[in-house]
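Q: My collaborator sent me two sequences in one message, no labels, and asked for predicted structures for both. Can we handle them in order? The first one she listed is below.
A: Yes, handling them in the order given. First sequence, followed by its structure tokens:
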Amino acid sequence: MLLTEKDATWEKILNLRNSEGLSRFTWMHIASHFFSDALTGRLSGLGLWDGDVWLDELRDLSPLPALVTLSACNSLSSFVYKGDEHVDVPTTFLVAGADRVIGSLWPVLDQAAAEFTSAFYRRYLDVMSPAESVIQVQRELIDQGKPIDQWASFLCLGAP
């Protein structure tokens, strides 16, 4: 199932969840704008065609596919409470059932993110684990002489 542009709405995602559940998919890839609340973390979320979606709404998508890929700048940004309690989009997805979340720690140019995620899925579909896929793509981009800001921010959180 592919939702792009005007079809990438919260209503359509909820319809998918309500029909047969999102966990029936192997992965969920979200290419959007993410925002992080640096004061409390609670007002973090992502933007869809029809508006912003907040952490409590994202949590309600449970159960999610095992892999969620976030192709956007700062998609792994986090607010950390004393005692290391993270409040952010990736943690919300992990709580909602994802085993792994792939994302970026800092802004990445759209072309670089597209190149990275395309290469990531080629490795992943060749039966590499998500963590191995991220590492292999990073090594290849290093070997190609790509600047560090085009590959180093991508991480795999959760189970390797």
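Q: And the one she listed second?
A: Here it is, processed independently of the first:
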Amino acid sequence: MARTKKPVTVKTAPAPAAVSNRDRLGQLAAVAEKFKGWRPAAEVLTRVQAQPTIFPQLNRKLRIGGWPLQRFALVHGPSSMGKTTLVHGLGLSFLNGGHFYGYIDAEFTTPETWLAKLMATQSTHPGFVAKRPKSYEDTVEAVREFAESISAARESGKLDKETTALLVVDSIRKLVPEKLMEKIAKGDGGVDGASGRAAMMRAALNAQWLDELIPMLYHANMTLIFIAREAENPNASPWEEQFKVGGGKALVYDSSLVCRVTRAAWVKEGTGDAAKVVGERHRVEIRKTKVAGKEGKTAEAFFHTSNGAITPTGFDRARDVFDMATDLGVIEKSGAWYSFNGERFQGESGTVRALNANPDMLASVEANCEPGEGEDAEAG
């Protein structure tokens, strides 16, 4: 007769009491406080900070109210079309706000007399500093020292905590590493001194440098702009860009903003043979951004410079505002007449003169061009 096995009784531990969601959140918070060097994400991943610029259209198109901080950007375009003019306008914006503007003139071509016309009295602002570097390595060290000095002064209380800075390198192509300079001086290795690999060497160094720059700019609460040159791209297909940007792909890929500057037109007064040039209209194409949403693949903004014929020599803010307000319908056009808030002005030049002569009206027109609620689209 087969033996019947007794059933085995397995003793199990009692089920743990259910933990409420509130208690669980409390547990997470208590443990998170023990993480060294960590803070709540809402305190670290803050909204994009920006410095308002003297360019009203650029402020609007960037959709964060100005030029982003804690990031670096790339500005490029054809020669003599306004790249350096744009960055000096951005530098002027930082100086106007009581911040630093550092300019590394690797091109060795920027005269103080031109800056005095472009920036007026701010060309001698105590926060405006410049350097003409000896080499690539000299520039890297200068950028590091600039950022660390500002951070240290802010932490020690010698600078207001809100003080920030813009640093511009003009241009990245002119920075030559010391070893490459030695090869060029000796005439070794072909026409560029490196058997045709000079551009590759520079691109690799730039990519390596960016790895240091990105966290440095964040902790120094400053922004940096590289100016790059363009070259024709003869092998480009019809749907590709017809130009190449020097300095390596990392400059484009890692930039928060990539802006291309070209001359849109000469600004003239009068018509036909009697027309005379009174300034320039520059186009800024925002081709890539990590700081906000865009209207499309490319967003466009314009800024103007004056030769002194209608408005003072330098940046023509009155024409910038007029251009934006007319485009948005804030200033209404009827034939050769323009009107705003019941006042009428004859012709574009007449309206620009009136705006330039009346700062309160200029401010009112610009305020009416501000984006409405929900129109801005910010991103991290």
